[in-house]
Amino acid sequence: MTNRQIELYENYKSKNWSLPKIAKQIKVSVQNLEEYEKKVLENELMWKFIDLRSKGFSIEDISEELNVSISYLIELSETIRPDILSNYKTLAIDKIQSDNFVNRGKRIEIFGEQFKAIKEELSQRDLKDVPTEKLLTLFLKYGEFLKNSEVKIGLKRIELNEYGSKQVEKWNI
What we know:
Layout: H1 3-14, H2 19-26, H3 30-54, H4 59-66, H5 70-79, H6 82-99, H7 104-123, H8 130-148, E1 154-160, E2 166-172
Antiparallel strand pairs: 1-2
Helix pairs in contact: 1-2, 2-3, 3-6, 7-8
């Protein structure tokens, strides 16, 4: 099916048209539409599987959640490139850490805000004040923390060569 046919199919489907009516309107066979729907469903299931698996769900739990057999999920998992699942897990963990202020990025953000506030307060103070010394100490400590907290986030792509061994490509984002 062409992109235009897919666009029309989705439009008519949202209006609850029957498959035969849509097929006639966009000039494809009902069988083509059924195959397209099957591929879309399989693709949605695959991404739901990847999402749940990356969050640590067992195959059995995913089977119950998606209402599909364990054997189907095992077959599906064999078709997914390992780097996709690995990268998805990495990003899921990063989101959990970020949501719970555990990841470095969030801590850096919080410390950075405090660092700016201390810096602003220091610029308004006379350096002869005793509390200024404490602020200066905090300023240096926060600055050192921020300097040491830089994190490089990396993703990877794994490919099997013709001999079955893995080739790993890594890059930072």
